[in-house]
């Protein structure tokens, strides 16, 4: 294999793992079946931050399919968030959408207030909102670094803090990390650090909530087929990334949403305080 092509592929794989944790548009069709009372989500409520597109949108749709009432959160993509809610409602589910910048603790509190007002409580919180700013240490601008840290570290802390106060006993709290923390490519130092924090948050918060039967975990996606990933790579690079996984394909937003669904189910209760790599074996 040509060494330049090999290097290019490795860099793209690293970008793919990075991009997987950023909300992007979900073009997959949505089908809904009325949940039975035996489903965990029936009568329960979920908040998914950064859920106007990508993994967040797929998660909101999946939890609605499981019977949860869902709050779809967005920062700027109001129309996309509205469409997700419309789809869920049209299929017989319950959902609302609310704007909130997770970096602002008052906005996060208002997001939880709106959810409790609409649905009466909170049982599942998925902290998915995040941004990606990459660059070499010598080239990273202060404002790019500060905004990313404010969203990915402080923002996820704001969400998890509020979740620790509001989630009902027996609930689930999940944050999104990234497989980039294992790949460690040049240019991803600050972003990877912000995602590595999610493992620490999950492990510590799980212990702090001892006795309440609330499991807390982090998920680290790998290369997920999203609009953002496709905008960053050529067809050849995408095919190369897919070939690097044992399954011979890229991940889909639904792959991650299905894992979140499992963790939220009764079968997922014993998984607690963990970082779960969900990358098809790419690392």
Written account of the structure:
There is one protein chain. With 283 residues, the protein is an alpha/beta fold. It has a single domain (3-278), classed as NAD(P)-binding Rossmann-like Domain (Rossmann fold, 3-Layer(aba) Sandwich), CATH 3.40.50.720. It is built from 10 helices and 7 strands. Strand 1, helix 2 and strand 2 form a beta-alpha-beta unit. The protein is globular.
Radius of gyration: 18 Å
Query: What is the spatial order of strands in the main beta sheet?
Result: 3-2-1-4-5-6-7
Mean pLDDT: 89
Gap between N and C termini:
20 Å
How would you name the CATH homologous superfamily?
A: NAD(P)-binding Rossmann-like Domain
Helix content: 40-55%
| The top level CATH class name | Alpha Beta
Signal peptide: 1-27
Protein name: SDR family oxidoreductase
Keywords: Oxidoreductase, Signal
InterPro entries: KR_dom, NAD(P)-bd_dom_sf, SDR_fam, TAT_signal
Brief descriptors of the model:
10 helices, 47% helix, 7 strands, SDR family oxidoreductase, Rossmann fold, 283 residues, globular, 12% strand, single chain, alpha/beta, 7-stranded parallel beta sheet
Summarize the SSE layout with pairings:
Layout: H1 3-20, E1 45-48, H2 54-65, E2 69-74, H3 78-90, E3 95-99, H4 105-119, E4 124-127, H5 142-166, E5 172-176, H6 180-183, H7 189-208, E6 215-221, H8 227-232, H9 235-243, H10 253-264, E7 275-278
Parallel strand pairs: 1-2, 1-4, 2-3, 4-5, 5-6, 6-7
Helix pairs in contact: 1-9, 2-10, 4-5, 5-7
